[in-house]
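During the no-cost extension, the postdoctoral fellow (Dr. R.K.) reprocessed legacy sequence entries with the updated structure-token encoder. One reprocessed record is reproduced below for audit purposes.
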Amino acid sequence: MIKYFPIVVFLFLSVAATPNALADTLETNFQNPPREAGVRCWWWWLNSNVTKESITRDLEEMHKKGFSGAMIFDAGTELRWGPDENPPNGPQFGGPEWTELYLHALQEAKRLGLKIGLSIQSGWNLGGPRVTLDDTAKQITWSEIQIKGGQTVNETLPTPKSNYDYYRDISVLAWPTKTSGAIQDATRQPIRDLTAKSGAKELGGSAPDCRFLLDDFPSVEGEEDARLDDVVDIGSHLDEHGVLTWEAPDGDWTVMRIGYTPTTAHVATSSDNWKGHVLDYLSKESFLRYWHDVVDPLLQVAGPMAGTVLTQLETDSWECGGMNWSPGFAEDFERYNGYDPIRYLPIVAGKIIEDRRASNAFLADLRKTIAHCVSENHYKTFAEQAARYGIGIQPECSGPHAAPIDGITNYSHSEITMSEFWIPCPHRPNPPNRFFVKQAASAAHIYGKQLVGAESFTSLKKPHWGVEIWHDMKPHMDYEFCEGLNLIFFHTFTCSPKEMGVPGQEYFAGTHVNPQVTWWDQSGAFIDYINRVQTVLQPGEFVADVLYYYGDHVPNIAVNKGFNQAGSLPGYDYDVTNEEVLLQLEVVEGEVVVPSGLRYRVLVLPDHKVLSLAALEKVAELLERGATVVGSKPDRLVSLVGGDEAQERFHELASELWGEAPGPEGTKKIGSGRLVWGLNSRELLQRDGVPFDFEALDVKSQSDFETIHYTVEGGDVYFVSNQTDQPQKARFAFRAAGRQPELWDPVTGEISKAGAFEQTDSRTILPIEFNPYGASLVFFRQPIPTSQQGSDGSNFPTLQTVEEIDG
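Re-encoded structure tokens follow.
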């Protein structure tokens, strides 16, 4: 069963005085968190089987417990319980009866001062019964024949393989068939990982490293199927019946009919009456048709509550496989890349055009264009339409499933950057597969967004009644606070009518928290803890020393903090940036500055030695203007953008910066800046004499502790978490001096001045004692002389004997 949050009340010797009105407000809010800082939840309406009575009960209970709002998430169960155990069907999502329940939820939330979000469908993978085959996700398909030239060809071309008897042509391409001296298909190495490289599938479910897609087998002379100049676009010679009429030149010709067909992806885990095809994420027009048909009516009927009570719209994580074509995609491709993709399309069918390097580079450009279309045509359009009503969006738009996307770029359109984290369960037993918030937090920091949310405490295939707050939930949540999370969405809170009994209908995944479960009445202390932490972290400005550029390849999803991609841990924190923001960086006083205004001492390049020419040119500019850049010499441009001139310029510029044959380690002054290789950012910062931002002294392992640093209202605050199941007592060094350290206890709400501390070398060192999986907020606010040392008293609660009990 749920193990309850332990409450221990200590008698403290002193309580900190407030230095100013702003601090007074923050102290008051910490001790009594305001509504707007509170937790939220995924509020499941299973099979739409909810009632006005259950809606009112849930919202009133959320209000009592300190929730700030809820996300209405209509969904089904996908027979996870068995066919005879699913909740009965309620009204169809968006229909008149469902809309009446939805309006009741908005009205009740308005009465209670809660904010409501809405997932704009039932289930996930955006789509449903109103999505036609014209608007569903699509993939490239093809057929191939051999013909004899030197004559008029009049032949019906085979229709490529299709789904749902739906096929549309893109073009017909022909090239001379190689015979003499050709490397036969039976002995030639195929294009490696072609299905993934072409965007036809997603890769894994736990933010896998996809950089391997940039590589292929070594080129072999003569292995190509055709030179690009030999590929002829004869699509205009194909009639509507699939008959090719063409004056074929002499020789043997390979003719490929190439087009697109729907994928087989469907909406997942929807109510029974919302089954249907997945929407085409590459098409703005398809999204707008869905919006006007399904979403607009729900926002219009909300009236003035849209934008005031209904404040967020959501779609869930991408779990719909790949998609790589759409009407208008060729035009989007040419606009983004500056060249026509049509004659390269045989590469998607496994042909090598020009050579293996060029074929691999085209596939990289193809994936990057898919990512552009997903970002611009889908998520940006989503945000623009929601903004017409004064509503923000918070889609889980950036993994962890490795779809053909750039994760950070997708977040640029969100008001709340939304991620997820899991607690230990058989489905995700290991930490690398559970923590995904670092990417969402980095996106919020570089794009200037306040709230970083997460679908929280997700689990699968573990009995939910076996979850322990202090062991399973709290340390994993605290870890994610240290990655940048500041808004918990409980996963999950299921709405269950009284007719369903106790515990009633429950979603098959997540950790259940709602009035029907046994620990609800005792959940207040845990929720108060979360709300206190969020109250302090939400208004904070993140402090980091390092900015890591994660490249422009697709799929691209930033991994969790523990992977230390920036090479800065332990001691120095970091953010991750995409190419879009990299190209907007400025340099101020030797530090790189993102558009939101955050500053970093060091920019770190990806370790796979692949950069775009635009990124390399930006690095050169930043160096000239005074930046410090860490990274090895890039050796490849995996793109056809700019043609041969771009390839030449890339290698020329790389050699200008690093030299023709740089040694294993080096430092080079370029303009006002420094280029460093062979050291990671931590080693460089230490060599430069920059103190660690946080350091646990006299401990067996720095990894026992996680931390995050913000500036808040003119002070510095560190959230520090003991990630072990053992009590810990140690000295901790913080890169903050000249201010009185205070200990804010988010369990009790107590605030106390640290009596024992020392200031040295721009750092403050103080002893702190942690319970197993304990955490503390360490605040530096009130100015004091940097020479002042804290030698009075203790930083720990002083326990007094109240009464001795014999027996």
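Residues 38-131+272-330+365-540 form a domain with the TIM Barrel fold (CATH 3.20.20.80). Confidence is low (pLDDT under 50) at residues 1-19. The remaining legacy entries will be reprocessed before the final report is submitted.
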